[in-house]
Amino acid sequence: MSSRRWRGLKHLRLALLLFLAFLLISSPILSADSGKIISTIKTEGATRSLLIRDEYAFIGARDGLGIVDISDVDKPKIISEIKLKGEVLGISISGNTLFAAVYRMGLVIIDVSHPGFPQVKEVYEFKTAIYNLLVAGSLAYVASSQGLIILDISDKFTPREIGLFETESAVYDICINGDWAYILDNSCVEEYQGRLYAVDISDPRHPKPGSQLDLPFPMKVVAVDNYLYVADGGLYVFDISAPSQPKKCKAIFTGDIQQDLAIDQTNLFVVEKKGLHIFDITNPKEPVKVNSLTIPDSSYRISVRDQNVFIANYYEGLLIIGLE
Q: Contact 201/179 with Cβ under 8 angstroms?
């Protein structure tokens, strides 16, 4: 082999090593040894939903609800579990009352005054499948295969259906911003076609449509002031200064279908099945990616508190990641 060819191979090898080093630095892999994952805790059944409240993590699974004490993030402890006849796909809490959207079962209302001893108080059945919910004041907004269902929960243990906004496909997520609800529906019929709806809920008994926009595969939606963030095949930013007419102003593609969003002060956290991306949203119209991390496969839900990221992983349970 000629010396010139040998030098060329050496340069190529060096370039490849530098490229691999760059990938490792720019996208660190989380592991217990790296010090990034603080702790994990396996819950019963496949994990589907997550909510952090005070010193507790409420984890929805394929067949029930688990409550984890996270006062010491290094040593989380399961303190109670409730078996339910269905998958817990959404969780919301008002005071000491937890509302769980349980697929094919309905709205399960649970007293969590004593998290170690939760008590099921009521099961409100629907004629349709439900996928998620959001409680705001005396109302519960329920995502269903029929559309957006609005319940009066002024008596928490005796909900009453008062409003309905019908959609063409099943609603999977809801975001409330003032007198407007922004909801996402999804259809697997036509190449995963979905929509973002703006809905006037100033009169919850008679929700009224604003505009609707087609999106390829919308999964989650959150709002900050006059901006809306939608997790899809990419991260979409909408200007909602005119609430009835969301206007797309930014699209950021990260490489995979995004599963969930969380906001903590001026940071937006985006979780994919195997990735976590952190964006600075000091300028909410122009998110700037500040970090990306590789996480265990099949991660679906995320919450953030006190410089810790909590991730619900379908197989692993609850992952707790330190950001400091």
A: yes
Give kind and range of the element (H or E) at residue 16: helix 3-26
Q: What is the largest CA-CA distance in the chain?
A: 85
Q: Give 273-282 pLDDT, tens digit per residue.
A: 888 999 999 9
pLDDT band at 38 (very low <50, low <70, confident <90, very high): confident
Supply the pLDDT for residue 21.
36
Amino acid, single-letter form, for residue 7: R
The distance from CA 297 to its chain's CA centroid, rounded to whole angstroms, is 16
**Cα 324 to Cα 304: distance, rounded to the nearest angstrom:** 13
pTM for the predicted model, two decimal places: 0.86
What would the mean pLDDT of 208-220 be, rounded to a whole number?
Answer: 90
Q: In this structure, how many other beta carbons lie within 10 angstroms of the beta carbon of residue 307?
A: 11
Spell out the residues 6+ positions from residue 135 whose beta carbon is closer than 8 angstroms to its own: 92, 93, 94, 99, 141, 153
Whether the Cβ atoms of residue 247 and residue 286 lie closer than 8 Å to each other = no
Sequence-separated contacts (24+) of 66-74 with Cβ below 8 Å: 67/112, 67/115, 67/116, 67/118, 68/41, 68/43, 68/318, 69/115, 70/310, 70/320, 73/38, 73/39, 73/308, 73/320, 73/322, 74/38, 74/39
8 A C-beta contact, residue 236 and residue 171: no
Strands 299-305 and 288-294: unpaired
CA–CA dist 133, 174 (Å, integer): 7
